[in-house]
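Key result, reporting period 2: structure in, sequence out.
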């Protein structure tokens, strides 16, 4: 541990402690006090560093583990202009792991004086939990409704345990329960509860329903074709799929990396990731790609899958075409078709909100099928708010937290009028 601490202090010493804090103010969606917590790391006051992080973000351990720091906080690090940026994510993760190893706990703060206002939160992912936390600590009675059996949303069902421990998620949920937040599972929005039914009982409603509809396209009527959501859920529920054979994952983001590594753990003979762009344009984090490659997963760039071929609904191979990048777009190369062996396919090309469900509740959506909100997360229905993936495409955990916090402040302001 001493050697680890010395390395961590070296990382911390790299931070310039900028007064303008571009890493926090411009890079971090929730304005984490980055120089402040790093200064405590330099002094080996890890408990105080942990308190600073938790005070701002109860998802700090998760953000330090899976957030794209290279695009957010580290992407704005002054040191990174001419040199390597400060390893903010690694420092944040260390502080949180130190707290776990040393049984150091942050005391969640709450307003003991209730204001007799009730808010319903739909969805127990990052946006729902953050909104509930902000409201509860300000004296509101909060109930979280979740369609699944377990709580945590995408953190529970969409990210495999080898990348994010479920214990971290469970600790956050347990702390909210201790604060008095009520959790109700297996309650589906649009079926068991509606906007109209909730508004009769609650003063406000927050929608953190996420993006639950996977994007796919037709490559033929074959067995063993999955979307990433179903595939990762099966793994997280320990309902492993047998007989995957040679697996092809279509996509190039972090979910594609998770799906590929999950296929390996389910016993696939081989796993390839077919991506229509080149490595430079691949949205997955470099760390995630490197981990996948270490596990023997093969990325195949500049390749678009056209359709599958086989017999008796059994997939044998994929018909593909090579592409080239022109003006940042993947363009098919004429007469470059080829075949690629595949027994199973996983589509990992994105998720989108359930537009039909949202519109059934008379909530307006924009041209992309996302919930239409103002700058404070208000929808077209009075006292109904939204945040997270349902109102913002390609969101990160940190951005979902920021949108939910923003909406919670609007709820507090509107209900106090």
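The corresponding designed sequence is given below.
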């Amino acid at each position: 541990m001493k050697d680890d601490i010395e390395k961590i202090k070296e990382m911390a010493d790299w931070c310039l402690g900028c007064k303008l804090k571009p890493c926090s103010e411009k890079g971090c969606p929730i304005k984490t006090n980055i120089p402040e917590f790093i200064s405590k790391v330099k002094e080996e006051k890890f408990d105080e560093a942990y308190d600073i992080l938790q005070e701002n973000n109860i998802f700090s351990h998760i953000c330090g583990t899976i957030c794209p720091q290279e695009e957010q906080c580290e992407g704005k690090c002054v040191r990174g202009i001419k040199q390597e940026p400060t390893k903010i994510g690694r420092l944040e993760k260390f502080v949180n792991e130190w707290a776990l190893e040393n049984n150091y706990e942050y005391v969640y703060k709450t307003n003991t004086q209730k204001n007799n206002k009730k808010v319903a939160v739909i969805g127990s992912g990052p946006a729902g939990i953050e909104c509930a936390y902000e409201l509860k600590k300000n004296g509101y009675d909060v109930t979280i409704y979740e369609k699944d059996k377990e709580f945590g949303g995408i953190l529970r069902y969409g990210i495999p345990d080898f990348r994010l421990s479920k214990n971290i998620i469970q600790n956050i949920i347990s702390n909210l329960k201790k604060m008095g937040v009520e959790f109700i599972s297996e309650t589906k929005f649009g079926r068991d509860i509606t906007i109209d039914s909730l508004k009769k009982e609650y003063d406000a409603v927050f929608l953190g329903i996420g993006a639950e509809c996977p994007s796919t396209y037709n490559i033929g009527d074959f067995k063993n074709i999955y979307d990433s959501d179903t595939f990762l859920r099966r793994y997280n529920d320990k309902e492993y799929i047998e007989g995957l054979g040679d697996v092809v994952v279509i996509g190039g983001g972090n979910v594609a990396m998770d799906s590929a590594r999950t296929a390996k753990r389910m016993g696939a003979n081989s796993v390839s990731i077919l991506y229509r762009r080149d490595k430079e344009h691949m949205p997955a984090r470099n760390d995630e790609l490197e981990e996948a490659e270490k596990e023997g997963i093969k990325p195949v760039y500049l390749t678009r899958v056209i359709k599958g071929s086989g017999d008796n609904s059994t997939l044998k191979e994929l018909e593909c075409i090579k592409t080239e990048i022109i003006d940042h777009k993947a363009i098919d190369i004429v007469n470059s078709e080829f075949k690629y062996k595949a027994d199973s396919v996983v589509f990992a090309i994105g998720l989108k909100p359930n537009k039909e469900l949202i519109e059934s509740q008379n909530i307006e959506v924009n041209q992309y099928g996302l919930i239409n909100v103002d700058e404070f997360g208000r929808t077209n229905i009075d006292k109904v708010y939204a945040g997270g993936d349902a109102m913002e495409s390609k969101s990160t955990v940190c951005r979902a937290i920021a949108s939910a916090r923003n909406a919670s402040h609007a709820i507090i302001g509107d209900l106090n009028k």
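The first helix runs from residue 2 to 13. The chain has a mean pLDDT of 95. This case is discussed further under Risks and Mitigation.
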